[in-house]
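U., I forgot to send this yesterday:
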Amino acid sequence: MHCILFLHFPAYPRLLGNMNTPIEFRRRIGPDPHANGARTVAVNGCPDIFELESGDFAVIGIDITAAAVPKLPQTAGCGPDERIVLVPRKTLVLAKPDIPSQI
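Result:
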C-alpha cells in the first residue's frame, strides 16, 4: 500500500496562486506511529498528522478516494486536486490532546 500526504489548507486559494510556497512542518500531532517498534498497516510511515508553520495540517493516510467518492453525501465533493485518505481511529484519538482547540 502507498501513503499519500493530504494537505488541509484553509488558505488554499491563496496558495494556488503561488505553488512555490514552501511547506514547513512545525510538529507532529499525536505520537510517532512507529514509536517503540510499533508497526502500522502501510509500514512506510503511515498514518501521521502534522501541524504546519502556517497553522494548517497535513495528514498522511491511505488513499481511499476511488472507493469513497461514489459514497460521499450529496453536499460533499472531492475535487481533482484533492484526495480522501483513511486515518485510523487510533491515530486521531491519540492525537486529540495535541490538536489546538482554537482557530
